[in-house]
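Figure 3 (text version): C-alpha coordinates given as input.
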Protein backbone atom coordinates (compact mmCIF):
# COMPACT_ATOMS: atom_id res chain seq x y z
CA UNK A 1 0.00 0.00 0.00
CA UNK A 2 1.45 3.31 -1.12
CA UNK A 3 0.36 6.93 -1.75
CA UNK A 4 -0.13 8.14 -5.31
CA UNK A 5 1.78 11.41 -5.67
CA UNK A 6 1.03 12.29 -9.28
CA UNK A 7 2.29 11.79 -12.83
CA UNK A 8 5.91 12.71 -13.54
CA UNK A 9 7.82 12.90 -16.84
CA UNK A 10 11.24 11.30 -17.23
CA UNK A 11 12.69 11.68 -20.70
CA UNK A 12 9.95 10.84 -23.21
CA UNK A 13 8.05 8.57 -20.77
CA UNK A 14 5.43 9.46 -18.17
CA UNK A 15 5.24 7.61 -14.84
CA UNK A 16 2.94 7.31 -11.82
CA UNK A 17 4.89 8.24 -8.71
CA UNK A 18 3.95 6.11 -5.67
CA UNK A 19 5.47 6.62 -2.21
CA UNK A 20 5.73 3.72 0.25
CA UNK A 21 6.90 3.35 3.88
CA UNK A 22 10.52 4.13 4.83
CA UNK A 23 10.84 6.64 1.96
CA UNK A 24 10.59 3.85 -0.63
CA UNK A 25 9.45 5.16 -4.00
CA UNK A 26 8.25 3.55 -7.19
CA UNK A 27 7.80 4.94 -10.71
CA UNK A 28 5.28 2.95 -12.72
CA UNK A 29 5.25 3.56 -16.51
CA UNK A 30 1.81 4.83 -17.60
CA UNK A 31 1.49 1.99 -20.11
CA UNK A 32 1.54 -0.51 -17.22
CA UNK A 33 -0.74 1.58 -14.95
CA UNK A 34 -3.24 -1.31 -15.06
CA UNK A 35 -1.06 -3.10 -12.48
CA UNK A 36 -1.93 -0.41 -9.92
CA UNK A 37 -5.34 -0.46 -8.27
CA UNK A 38 -7.05 1.98 -5.93
CA UNK A 39 -7.06 1.02 -2.25
CA UNK A 40 -10.56 0.24 -1.02
CA UNK A 41 -10.56 0.46 2.75
CA UNK A 42 -12.53 -1.37 5.39
CA UNK A 43 -14.57 1.24 7.22
CA UNK A 44 -12.91 4.34 8.65
CA UNK A 45 -9.54 2.80 9.52
CA UNK A 46 -6.56 4.57 7.97
CA UNK A 47 -4.47 2.27 5.78
CA UNK A 48 -0.93 1.55 6.97
CA UNK A 49 1.79 2.08 4.36
CA UNK A 50 4.10 -0.85 3.63
CA UNK A 51 7.71 -0.88 2.48
CA UNK A 52 8.70 -2.34 -0.88
CA UNK A 53 11.22 -4.85 0.42
CA UNK A 54 9.83 -5.70 3.86
CA UNK A 55 7.95 -8.97 4.37
CA UNK A 56 4.92 -7.13 5.85
CA UNK A 57 2.86 -7.10 2.64
CA UNK A 58 3.49 -10.80 2.01
CA UNK A 59 2.29 -11.61 5.52
CA UNK A 60 -0.86 -9.41 5.14
CA UNK A 61 -1.70 -11.07 1.78
CA UNK A 62 -1.18 -14.56 3.22
CA UNK A 63 -3.48 -13.80 6.18
CA UNK A 64 -6.18 -12.40 3.86
CA UNK A 65 -6.06 -15.53 1.65
CA UNK A 66 -6.33 -17.81 4.70
CA UNK A 67 -9.29 -15.75 6.01
CA UNK A 68 -11.07 -16.02 2.62
CA UNK A 69 -10.55 -19.80 2.68
CA UNK A 70 -11.99 -19.98 6.22
CA UNK A 71 -15.13 -18.10 5.13
CA UNK A 72 -15.48 -20.39 2.09
CA UNK A 73 -15.21 -23.50 4.31
CA UNK A 74 -17.81 -22.10 6.72
CA UNK A 75 -20.15 -21.40 3.79
CA UNK A 76 -19.78 -24.92 2.37
CA UNK A 77 -20.42 -26.44 5.82
CA UNK A 78 -23.48 -24.22 6.29
CA UNK A 79 -24.98 -25.18 2.92
CA UNK A 80 -24.21 -28.86 3.55
CA UNK A 81 -26.05 -28.64 6.88
CA UNK A 82 -29.03 -26.95 5.20
CA UNK A 83 -29.03 -29.69 2.56
CA UNK A 84 -29.43 -32.48 5.13
CA UNK A 85 -31.68 -30.63 7.58
CA UNK A 86 -35.41 -31.22 7.64
CA UNK A 87 -38.22 -28.86 8.72
CA UNK A 88 -41.96 -28.95 9.27
CA UNK A 89 -43.76 -27.81 6.07
CA UNK A 90 -45.22 -24.31 6.50
CA UNK A 91 -48.36 -25.15 4.52
CA UNK A 92 -49.72 -28.54 5.45
CA UNK A 93 -53.51 -28.30 5.40
CA UNK A 94 -56.28 -27.42 2.93
CA UNK A 95 -57.63 -24.45 4.93
CA UNK A 96 -54.26 -22.66 4.94
CA UNK A 97 -53.89 -23.38 1.23
CA UNK A 98 -57.32 -21.89 0.50
CA UNK A 99 -56.46 -18.77 2.53
CA UNK A 100 -53.18 -18.48 0.61
CA UNK A 101 -55.02 -18.45 -2.75
CA UNK A 102 -57.61 -16.00 -1.41
CA UNK A 103 -54.79 -13.62 -0.42
CA UNK A 104 -53.06 -14.09 -3.79
CA UNK A 105 -56.28 -13.36 -5.69
CA UNK A 106 -56.76 -10.10 -3.79
CA UNK A 107 -53.71 -8.57 -5.58
CA UNK A 108 -54.86 -5.42 -7.39
CA UNK A 109 -53.04 -6.22 -10.66
CA UNK A 110 -53.23 -9.14 -13.05
CA UNK A 111 -50.31 -11.57 -12.56
CA UNK A 112 -47.80 -11.99 -15.39
CA UNK A 113 -46.93 -15.55 -16.50
CA UNK A 114 -43.70 -15.34 -14.50
CA UNK A 115 -45.55 -14.30 -11.35
CA UNK A 116 -47.96 -17.24 -11.69
CA UNK A 117 -45.05 -19.67 -12.18
CA UNK A 118 -43.02 -18.31 -9.22
CA UNK A 119 -46.07 -18.31 -6.92
CA UNK A 120 -46.32 -22.08 -7.64
CA UNK A 121 -42.57 -22.52 -6.96
CA UNK A 122 -42.88 -20.70 -3.61
CA UNK A 123 -45.88 -22.84 -2.75
CA UNK A 124 -43.90 -26.03 -3.47
CA UNK A 125 -41.04 -24.73 -1.28
CA UNK A 126 -43.39 -23.97 1.61
CA UNK A 127 -44.98 -27.43 1.38
CA UNK A 128 -41.60 -29.16 1.40
CA UNK A 129 -39.67 -30.57 4.38
CA UNK A 130 -36.42 -29.18 2.91
CA UNK A 131 -35.65 -25.56 3.91
CA UNK A 132 -36.28 -23.11 1.07
CA UNK A 133 -33.27 -21.18 -0.27
CA UNK A 134 -34.59 -19.33 -3.29
CA UNK A 135 -33.12 -16.36 -5.15
CA UNK A 136 -35.71 -14.12 -6.81
CA UNK A 137 -34.29 -11.96 -9.61
CA UNK A 138 -36.29 -9.22 -11.32
CA UNK A 139 -36.23 -5.56 -12.27
CA UNK A 140 -37.74 -2.82 -10.08
CA UNK A 141 -41.52 -2.84 -10.49
CA UNK A 142 -41.67 -6.41 -11.86
CA UNK A 143 -43.40 -7.71 -8.73
CA UNK A 144 -40.69 -9.16 -6.45
CA UNK A 145 -42.18 -7.59 -3.32
CA UNK A 146 -45.67 -8.95 -4.05
CA UNK A 147 -44.27 -12.48 -4.43
CA UNK A 148 -42.37 -12.10 -1.15
CA UNK A 149 -45.61 -10.88 0.50
CA UNK A 150 -47.32 -14.10 -0.59
CA UNK A 151 -44.62 -16.25 1.02
CA UNK A 152 -44.75 -14.02 4.13
CA UNK A 153 -48.54 -14.35 4.32
CA UNK A 154 -48.40 -18.15 4.13
CA UNK A 155 -45.73 -18.26 6.86
CA UNK A 156 -47.39 -15.86 9.32
CA UNK A 157 -50.82 -17.37 8.70
CA UNK A 158 -49.37 -20.75 9.73
CA UNK A 159 -48.20 -19.27 13.05
CA UNK A 160 -44.53 -18.50 12.32
CA UNK A 161 -42.55 -15.25 12.48
CA UNK A 162 -40.94 -13.53 9.49
CA UNK A 163 -37.82 -11.32 9.37
CA UNK A 164 -37.25 -8.99 6.40
CA UNK A 165 -33.72 -7.64 5.98
CA UNK A 166 -33.35 -4.45 3.88
CA UNK A 167 -30.13 -2.51 3.17
CA UNK A 168 -31.33 1.03 4.00
CA UNK A 169 -33.61 2.73 6.51
CA UNK A 170 -35.55 4.32 3.62
CA UNK A 171 -36.34 0.92 2.12
CA UNK A 172 -37.36 -0.36 5.57
CA UNK A 173 -39.82 2.56 5.83
CA UNK A 174 -41.25 1.91 2.39
CA UNK A 175 -41.63 -1.82 3.05
CA UNK A 176 -43.36 -1.04 6.34
CA UNK A 177 -45.98 1.10 4.55
CA UNK A 178 -46.46 -1.42 1.71
CA UNK A 179 -46.78 -4.36 4.14
CA UNK A 180 -49.30 -2.57 6.36
CA UNK A 181 -51.41 -1.68 3.34
CA UNK A 182 -51.28 -5.19 1.80
CA UNK A 183 -52.02 -6.90 5.14
CA UNK A 184 -54.60 -4.31 6.29
CA UNK A 185 -57.36 -6.94 6.49
CA UNK A 186 -55.30 -9.25 8.72
CA UNK A 187 -54.40 -8.85 12.39
CA UNK A 188 -50.65 -9.24 11.85
CA UNK A 189 -48.29 -7.36 14.19
CA UNK A 190 -45.73 -5.63 11.92
CA UNK A 191 -42.73 -3.75 13.37
CA UNK A 192 -39.53 -2.16 12.09
CA UNK A 193 -35.97 -2.02 13.45
CA UNK A 194 -33.71 0.67 11.95
CA UNK A 195 -32.12 4.06 12.59
CA UNK A 196 -35.65 5.51 12.48
CA UNK A 197 -36.62 3.58 15.65
CA UNK A 198 -35.65 5.19 18.96
CA UNK A 199 -34.01 3.15 21.73
CA UNK A 200 -37.28 2.54 23.58
CA UNK A 201 -39.02 1.28 20.40
CA UNK A 202 -36.06 -0.99 19.62
CA UNK A 203 -36.04 -2.53 23.10
CA UNK A 204 -39.81 -3.08 22.97
CA UNK A 205 -39.68 -4.71 19.51
CA UNK A 206 -36.78 -7.00 20.50
CA UNK A 207 -38.64 -8.07 23.66
CA UNK A 208 -41.90 -8.75 21.77
CA UNK A 209 -40.04 -10.73 19.07
CA UNK A 210 -38.58 -13.06 21.68
CA UNK A 211 -42.06 -13.59 23.18
CA UNK A 212 -43.51 -14.30 19.73
CA UNK A 213 -45.81 -11.25 19.83
CA UNK A 214 -44.43 -9.68 16.63
CA UNK A 215 -45.32 -11.51 13.42
CA UNK A 216 -43.23 -9.56 10.91
CA UNK A 217 -40.14 -7.49 11.61
CA UNK A 218 -38.52 -5.37 8.89
CA UNK A 219 -35.05 -4.01 9.60
CA UNK A 220 -31.58 -3.09 8.44
CA UNK A 221 -28.48 -5.02 9.57
CA UNK A 222 -29.50 -4.27 13.19
CA UNK A 223 -31.61 -7.44 12.78
CA UNK A 224 -28.35 -9.39 12.66
CA UNK A 225 -27.17 -8.16 16.07
CA UNK A 226 -26.89 -10.80 18.78
CA UNK A 227 -29.64 -9.01 20.75
CA UNK A 228 -32.44 -10.03 18.36
CA UNK A 229 -33.95 -13.43 19.16
CA UNK A 230 -37.07 -15.01 17.64
CA UNK A 231 -39.58 -17.35 19.24
CA UNK A 232 -40.30 -19.28 16.02
CA UNK A 233 -38.74 -17.77 12.90
CA UNK A 234 -40.22 -19.43 9.83
CA UNK A 235 -38.99 -17.25 6.96
CA UNK A 236 -36.13 -14.84 6.35
CA UNK A 237 -36.49 -12.45 3.39
CA UNK A 238 -33.31 -10.67 2.26
CA UNK A 239 -34.03 -7.68 0.01
CA UNK A 240 -31.38 -6.29 -2.37
CA UNK A 241 -29.14 -9.16 -1.36
CA UNK A 242 -26.00 -7.78 -3.06
CA UNK A 243 -25.88 -4.89 -0.58
CA UNK A 244 -25.02 -7.16 2.35
CA UNK A 245 -21.62 -8.68 3.03
CA UNK A 246 -21.06 -12.43 3.00
CA UNK A 247 -20.62 -12.54 6.77
CA UNK A 248 -23.75 -10.46 7.44
CA UNK A 249 -26.04 -12.73 5.42
CA UNK A 250 -24.51 -15.97 6.56
CA UNK A 251 -24.69 -14.89 10.20
CA UNK A 252 -28.47 -14.78 9.83
CA UNK A 253 -28.59 -18.13 8.05
CA UNK A 254 -26.29 -19.64 10.65
CA UNK A 255 -28.65 -18.58 13.43
CA UNK A 256 -31.29 -20.80 11.91
CA UNK A 257 -30.01 -23.52 9.61
CA UNK A 258 -33.55 -24.86 9.42
CA UNK A 259 -35.31 -21.65 8.28
CA UNK A 260 -36.82 -20.87 4.88
CA UNK A 261 -34.88 -18.14 3.08
CA UNK A 262 -36.03 -15.98 0.17
CA UNK A 263 -33.49 -13.52 -1.30
CA UNK A 264 -34.49 -10.78 -3.75
CA UNK A 265 -32.36 -8.70 -6.08
CA UNK A 266 -32.48 -6.72 -9.29
CA UNK A 267 -28.73 -7.19 -9.81
CA UNK A 268 -27.38 -10.55 -8.62
CA UNK A 269 -23.65 -10.62 -7.94
CA UNK A 270 -21.45 -13.34 -9.52
CA UNK A 271 -21.08 -15.36 -6.29
CA UNK A 272 -24.86 -15.51 -5.82
CA UNK A 273 -25.48 -16.42 -9.46
CA UNK A 274 -22.79 -19.08 -9.33
CA UNK A 275 -24.46 -20.68 -6.29
CA UNK A 276 -27.82 -20.63 -8.05
CA UNK A 277 -26.49 -22.05 -11.32
CA UNK A 278 -24.49 -24.77 -9.58
CA UNK A 279 -27.63 -25.96 -7.79
CA UNK A 280 -26.70 -24.87 -4.26
CA UNK A 281 -29.68 -22.51 -4.38
CA UNK A 282 -32.89 -22.32 -6.42
CA UNK A 283 -33.35 -19.37 -8.75
CA UNK A 284 -36.54 -17.72 -10.05
CA UNK A 285 -36.43 -14.99 -12.69
CA UNK A 286 -39.11 -12.35 -13.26
CA UNK A 287 -38.42 -11.44 -16.88
CA UNK A 288 -41.89 -10.35 -18.04
CA UNK A 289 -42.73 -6.68 -17.46
CA UNK A 290 -46.21 -5.90 -16.11
CA UNK A 291 -48.89 -5.10 -18.71
CA UNK A 292 -48.60 -1.61 -20.18
CA UNK A 293 -45.01 -1.12 -18.99
CA UNK A 294 -43.06 0.93 -21.54
CA UNK A 295 -39.43 0.23 -22.24
CA UNK A 296 -36.92 2.40 -20.39
CA UNK A 297 -34.96 4.82 -22.58
CA UNK A 298 -31.31 5.15 -21.56
CA UNK A 299 -29.49 8.17 -22.98
CA UNK A 300 -25.79 8.81 -22.55
CA UNK A 301 -24.89 12.41 -23.30
CA UNK A 302 -22.24 14.96 -22.40
CA UNK A 303 -23.58 16.91 -19.40
CA UNK A 304 -25.50 20.07 -20.27
CA UNK A 305 -28.07 22.07 -18.32
CA UNK A 306 -30.09 22.50 -21.55
CA UNK A 307 -30.49 18.73 -21.71
CA UNK A 308 -31.44 18.62 -18.01
CA UNK A 309 -34.01 21.38 -18.57
CA UNK A 310 -35.66 19.50 -21.47
CA UNK A 311 -35.83 16.14 -19.64
CA UNK A 312 -37.12 17.61 -16.38
CA UNK A 313 -39.65 19.93 -18.09
CA UNK A 314 -41.07 17.01 -20.10
CA UNK A 315 -41.59 15.01 -16.88
CA UNK A 316 -43.08 17.96 -14.97
CA UNK A 317 -45.47 18.70 -17.85
CA UNK A 318 -47.01 15.23 -17.48
CA UNK A 319 -47.15 15.58 -13.66
CA UNK A 320 -44.41 13.01 -13.02
CA UNK A 321 -41.54 13.12 -10.52
CA UNK A 322 -37.79 13.27 -11.11
CA UNK A 323 -34.72 11.87 -9.39
CA UNK A 324 -31.69 14.12 -9.93
CA UNK A 325 -28.69 12.05 -8.90
CA UNK A 326 -25.66 14.05 -7.77
CA UNK A 327 -23.32 11.89 -5.74
CA UNK A 328 -21.26 14.60 -4.01
CA UNK A 329 -22.63 15.90 -0.73
CA UNK A 330 -20.05 18.71 -0.52
CA UNK A 331 -21.48 20.66 -3.49
CA UNK A 332 -25.04 19.33 -3.69
CA UNK A 333 -26.40 22.71 -2.48
CA UNK A 334 -25.01 24.56 -5.54
CA UNK A 335 -26.90 22.09 -7.79
CA UNK A 336 -30.01 22.72 -5.67
CA UNK A 337 -29.68 26.50 -6.29
CA UNK A 338 -29.29 25.93 -10.04
CA UNK A 339 -32.37 23.68 -10.20
CA UNK A 340 -34.37 26.25 -8.23
CA UNK A 341 -33.46 28.94 -10.76
CA UNK A 342 -34.36 26.68 -13.69
CA UNK A 343 -37.65 25.47 -12.18
CA UNK A 344 -38.97 28.15 -9.80
CA UNK A 345 -42.46 26.57 -9.71
CA UNK A 346 -41.25 23.03 -8.87
CA UNK A 347 -41.05 21.59 -5.35
CA UNK A 348 -37.40 20.52 -4.93
CA UNK A 349 -35.81 18.71 -1.98
CA UNK A 350 -32.41 17.20 -1.11
CA UNK A 351 -31.74 13.69 0.26
CA UNK A 352 -28.38 12.21 1.28
CA UNK A 353 -26.98 9.87 3.93
CA UNK A 354 -25.37 12.62 6.04
CA UNK A 355 -28.72 14.22 6.86
CA UNK A 356 -30.42 13.70 10.22
CA UNK A 357 -32.61 10.61 10.43
CA UNK A 358 -35.88 12.49 10.95
CA UNK A 359 -35.24 15.00 8.16
CA UNK A 360 -34.31 12.24 5.71
CA UNK A 361 -37.37 10.23 6.69
CA UNK A 362 -39.69 13.23 6.23
CA UNK A 363 -38.17 14.09 2.84
CA UNK A 364 -38.52 10.55 1.51
CA UNK A 365 -42.09 10.26 2.83
CA UNK A 366 -43.01 13.48 1.01
CA UNK A 367 -41.45 12.23 -2.22
CA UNK A 368 -43.27 8.88 -1.95
CA UNK A 369 -46.57 10.74 -1.36
CA UNK A 370 -45.94 12.99 -4.40
CA UNK A 371 -45.41 16.22 -2.42
CA UNK A 372 -41.97 16.75 -4.01
CA UNK A 373 -41.43 17.10 -7.77
CA UNK A 374 -37.63 16.85 -7.98
CA UNK A 375 -35.54 14.87 -5.49
CA UNK A 376 -31.90 15.92 -5.65
CA UNK A 377 -30.12 12.97 -4.09
CA UNK A 378 -27.06 10.76 -3.75
CA UNK A 379 -27.04 7.00 -4.44
CA UNK A 380 -28.98 6.58 -1.17
CA UNK A 381 -31.98 6.07 -3.50
CA UNK A 382 -30.49 3.12 -5.37
CA UNK A 383 -32.08 0.38 -3.27
CA UNK A 384 -35.18 -0.77 -5.10
CA UNK A 385 -37.50 2.09 -4.16
CA UNK A 386 -40.73 1.71 -6.09
CA UNK A 387 -42.27 5.13 -6.69
CA UNK A 388 -44.69 4.78 -9.57
CA UNK A 389 -44.85 8.40 -10.71
CA UNK A 390 -41.04 8.90 -10.70
CA UNK A 391 -40.23 8.14 -14.33
CA UNK A 392 -37.11 10.21 -14.99
CA UNK A 393 -33.64 9.94 -13.53
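Below: residues designed for each position.
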Amino acid sequence: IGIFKGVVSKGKEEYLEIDYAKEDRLFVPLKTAGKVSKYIGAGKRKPVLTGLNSGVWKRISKRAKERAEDIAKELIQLYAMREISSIEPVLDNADELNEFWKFTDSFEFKDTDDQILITRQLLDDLQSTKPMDRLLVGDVGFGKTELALRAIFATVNAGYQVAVLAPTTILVQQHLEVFKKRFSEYAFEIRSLSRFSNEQEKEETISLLEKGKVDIVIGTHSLISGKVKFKNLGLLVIDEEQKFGVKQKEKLKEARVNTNILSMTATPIPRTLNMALSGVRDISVLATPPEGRKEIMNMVEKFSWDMVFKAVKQELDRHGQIYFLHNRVENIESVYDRLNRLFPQARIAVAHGQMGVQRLSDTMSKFIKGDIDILLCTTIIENGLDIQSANTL
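The radius of gyration is 25 Å.
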